[in-house]
Amino acid sequence: MPQGRSPILELQGITKAFGGVEALRGVDFALCAGEIHGLVGENGAGKSTLMKVIAGVHTEFSGRFLLDGHETHFRSARDARAAGIAMVHQELSVVPDLSVAENVFLGQQPTNRFGLVQWRRMAREAGEQLKRLGIDVDPYSRLGDLPIGLQQLIEIARVLFSGARIIILDEPTSALSPPEVERLFATLRQLRDAGTGIVFISHFIEDILRVSDTVTVFRNGRKVAETAAASTTKGALIEAMIGRDGKALEHSYSDDLMLPPSNAGSVVLKVDQLTFARSLRAVSFEARAGEVLGIYGFMGCGQQELSRILFGKLKPDGGSLAVDGRRRTFGSTASARRAGIALVPESRRAMLFHQEPVYKNITISILDRISSVLLKPARERAIAMRQVEQLQIRPPVVGLDLGMLSGGNQQKVALAKWLTFPPRLLVLCEPTRGMDVGAKNDVINIVRDLRAKGLAIIVLSTEPETVLSLADRIVVMKRGAVVREFANEAVSKDRLLEAA
Amino acid sequence: MASSETVPAGRKRGGVAPFLRSQMRNIAPFLTLIFLSGFFAAASPSFATLDNLGNILTQVSVTGIIAVGLTFVILCAEIDLSIASIANVTGIAVAYFTMQESYVNIANFPMPGWVAVLLALVLCALLGVVNALGLTLIGIPSFIMTLAMMQIAAGISALLVRGQIAYKVPDVIATLGSGSIGGIPWIVIVAALMLLAGHLVLTYTRFGRYVYMVGGNREAAEYSGLNVNLILGSVMVIAAVCSGIGGMLGVAHFGSAQQNEFDSYLLDSIAAVVVGGTSLFGGRGGIGNTIVGLFVLGVLNNGLDHVNIDSFLKILIRGLILLAALVINVYAQRLRARTAE
Predict the structure, then answer these.
(1) Distance between CA atoms of A329 and A336, rounded to whole angstroms?
(2) Which entry of A55, A275, B113, B178 is 20 to 30 Å from B311 by CA?
(3) Angle, CA B170 vertex, CA B168 and CA B173 arms, to 5°
(4) How far is it between the farthest Cα atoms of chain A?
């Protein structure tokens, strides 16, 4: 906080728990008018939780909440908005079927004295506001027809020009191109100079350093540092985010880790100049037999789209894929599967049948190799039982409905689907997200076994630990492009974060 | 640790209450059937007779044949509104390709009986393929696609008969539709065989498994590398062909082929499948449910005639029963989902 100014917003000793787990522990936070306050921290460090407390989304917490020096307690997000606090959430919340202008004025359309919406005035003002952000788009066009980055900018515009005096931006730049980021920053500075207090959360530490006046670092639900942006560096911030004090529960990966020299086999997958909408820009890499390739990047870096293209769910706009040297275009997930590619998406719900027994879940993707016309339930159960034993799925009952298994065991079932007849290439998205230490280790061992069997494996994750614990070679993606490759060299969490 | 991840308490296998809850969609229609049968048996002495059972079976046969294919469609969480129209146009087509009596004023193309049947089957299969392509290739929701097909099939019917009525159908169709063997109407036997075939396909074949999995979670089916479009397309064609067979036999059964002859069969078939407990959200139910649903509908229609009720009130009562079944259907889905969470 700049010296000599009193804060418009002050939080003292905020503690917030979700079902016994403390997401925030005694956090103090202050925001002044005319200040851009950057927040950094790892996933789950408590940044978003604190912002949701400020925006009235979380109303149950302990600690003091002072607005203009007066103790305040919001009962809803509506209260917070009425008090002049507006927030852009991480997840896009626009209405694709409404026009651009309607989205900009969502919930506060200008009306005349008969209560009718003033369409022309709305369109004109929306157009003017968007121009300030450098967006030249017809205010009458349907929002859903615009690219995701533009939709994100329009949502930001809605909040920026809502007249709020406290504005919170949670990861606003993940889908924006560099010039768009520039224009956003210019607008933020204008608003700051006009006296608005702005909180800016981002994984992109360069962005934070460029635009913020003050930077606060969070780790494990605590505020660990607050400093003027001018007097710190990217390295210092990353160090504060990760923590050097060594009391990590598991391997923290803060120290250097040597990636092994490549003794991998033939190239199984060659991706060349892959382009997809605004999500992927000329992405090229190779995956080899007997090797785990880690792909690391922040949320929105294009990983998810990449995995869907590899499995035939999305069709790329440009570039090519080659499997075992043969160029392929996949019209469907079925053709990708036949080409020997398997995908385990990040959401279990997306690939499991909760109301069906475990064995049907395990055999569904290999049913055509078990039976031609008639089902062979006994054989299916035997195959499923073998996987259940190998992966130590609990309880070991293949007839049980999948929904009755715990999350970690469901994740193992998702893997088990592809293991009876191993594919050539296995693509794993966030394979250990939300798992306890034991289940994580199980998954790591399964992946190592598969590598030893000669599979090519790609692990995509937004968590550096996941990539570091599994990968032999690491590709870092940033805003849809490959920006760095680590092979046969030292790598650490710092270096990954630095590159991304 | 893996060892600590066991089944949450209270959800052990073999618990009676959770089992009953998960079987709600199978039990409720069955109880409805028993209740309705008991009620009509008590209300009218002519209801619970062997003769009347035969009547009921005959009355639900055409609906049953059409409902076989519709069960596949609804299991995939899709809908087909064109079944009755396709039944109608197929029935008309088979008559169109048959030599009519001289007083029938339709410019038609007489063919040998087996060719007429084959052409009619090809026609309904083609209409099913159009449904399938609209749904999968173009991505039109099945509700809208089959609404259009309903009109298209009705249009073809109208062009073929031009307001006239045809009476003759090939001998084999006439026999299957209105003949009987050993006192049992052929149409009942055909319906029973088709229901049985549908049940066997759904329960014991790979395709049947795919139908349930696509209906249970389409996204998961796609991420399992199934050709979801092929399966969806197939069920639309199956529904159209079943409707076509029902239409041909129906025309023989009624003794005439004319416009709008099958209109009431759309609602009856959907009602039979849904009242039987097959989930509108897909993945749950089957031919067994459809059979119970057919009997509920058959007993209701037939029984209301026996108790001498105002025939206009009959329509309202049928609507109310359908509503009750839908409520149970949605409620059972919710219970089941909660048990599985």
Answers:
(1) 9
(2) B178
(3) 105
(4) 80
**Are A406 and B5 in contact (CB < 8 Å)?**
yes
Cα-to-chain-centroid distance, residue B228 = 22
Q: Residues with Cβ < 8 Å from B228, sequence gap 6 or more?
A: A332, B214, B218, B221, B222
Show the tokens assigned to A377.
């339930």
A353 touching B (Cβ < 8 Å): yes
Size of interface A-B (CB pairs under 8 A): 116
C-alpha span between A85 and A346 (Å, rounded): 33
Which site among B19, B224, B228 would you substitute to test the A interface, given the most A Cβ atoms closer than 10 Å to its Cβ?
Answer: B224
Q: For residue A242, is pLDDT > 90?
A: no
**How many whole angstroms separate alpha carbon B83 and alpha carbon B241?**
9
Cβ contact (<8 Å) for A442 and B2?
Answer: yes
Q: Is B205 helix (H, G, I), strand (E, B) or coil?
A: strand
Instruction: Give A394's contacts in chain B (Cβ within 8 Å).
Output: 2-3, 5-6
From residue B207, alpha-carbon distances to A52, A169, B111 in Å are 48, 50, 35
CA distance A411 to chain B (A): 12
Q: Give the sign of the dihedral formed by CA A429, CA A405, CA B287, CA B70.
A: negative
| Contact criterion met (CB < 8 Å) for B204 and A311 | no
- The pLDDT tens digits of the residues spanning A327-382 come to 998 889 999 999 999 999 988 778 899 889 999 999 999 999 998 899 999 999 99
| Nearest alpha carbon to residue A223 among A34, A463, A40 | A40
The answer for residues whose C-beta is within 8 angstroms of residue B19's C-beta and 6 or more apart is none
Please say whether the beta carbons of B242 and B250 come within 8 A: no
Q: Which residues of A touch B1 (CB under 8 A)?
A: 436-439
Half-sphere exposure of A431 (CA within 13 A, CB side): 35
The CATH number assigned to the domain with range A257-351+417-499 reads 3.40.50.300
pTM, two decimals, is 0.79
Which of A364, A390, A415, A426 to mutate to test binding with chain B, by most B CBs within 10 Å of its CB? A364
Closest-CA distance, B86 to chain A, in angstroms, reads 29
Number of structural domains in chain B = 1
**Cβ under 8 Å to B: A residues 390-429:** 392, 394-395, 397, 400-401, 403-406, 408-409, 417
Is 50 exceeded by the pLDDT of residue B178? yes
H-only helix segments in A63-162:
77-82, 100-104, 119-132, 148-160
Taking CA atoms, A283 is separated from A305, A317, A479, B168, in Å, by: 11, 12, 11, 67
Structure token digits, residue B333: 């889905």
ipTM of the complex: 0.84
Provide CB contacts within 8 A for A152, sequence distance 6+.
A92, A172, A174, A175, A176
Using a CB–CB cutoff of 8 Å, tell me whether B9 touches chain A: no
Q: What is the pLDDT of residues B218-276, one digit of tens each?
A: 999 999 999 999 999 999 999 999 999 999 999 999 999 999 999 999 999 999 999 88
Say whether A257-351+417-499 and A9-242 share the same fold: yes
* Average pLDDT of the segment spanning A477-486: 90
Q: Which domain holds residue B155?
A: 47-331
Residue B109: inside a domain, yes or no?
Answer: yes
**What's the sign of the alpha-carbon dihedral A384, A386, A390, A393?**
positive
Q: Which CATH number fits domain A9-242: 3.40.50.300, 2.115.10.20, 3.40.50.1860, 3.40.50.2300?
A: 3.40.50.300
Asked if B2's CB is within 8 angstroms of A367's CB, the reply is: no
Q: Residue ranges per domain, chain A?
A: 9-242, 257-351+417-499
